[in-house]
Write the structure tokens for this entry.
Amino acid sequence: MASAHPRVLAALGRALSLELTAVQQYLTHASLLEAWGDQAAADRFRRETVEEMQHSERIVKRMIALGVAPAASQLRPVATASDLLSLLELNNVLEDQLVVHYAEALRFCRLIGDTLHAEFFQALLEEEQHHSVDIANWLNELRPVPPLARASF
Ligand SMILES: [Fe+2]
Ligand SMILES: [Fe+2]
């Protein structure tokens, strides 16, 4: 059976906790948005939930391949807010935590020459970076445009 450095196993465990936290958070936000009557945003959040679920599944499969029982025990409470813009800001924070975690896991795997897990974490890092960009773009669409500076001529 394949093996991995204990810190790589710990990184997989924390990754699963963060991904399942994201699943719980986006699922809740999708339901909130639906309750507020914003079906389009709810659908977009639901798609995000599926992607985070697929990330969770990839991590579980990797752990099983290493003979490790998944045991995500650090599921965080859902962070909620009362409008879409604030929900997105909260999700931005969560995506940033995922990006930081995967960047650190990738750095460590490269350091110890574990190319298999370096590739595994790099793929997840790139996908979370895309999520961060998507959220940032959506936030920019929603934020009110500042009034034009008064013409001085
Ligand atoms: Fe994810
Ligand atoms: Fe994500």
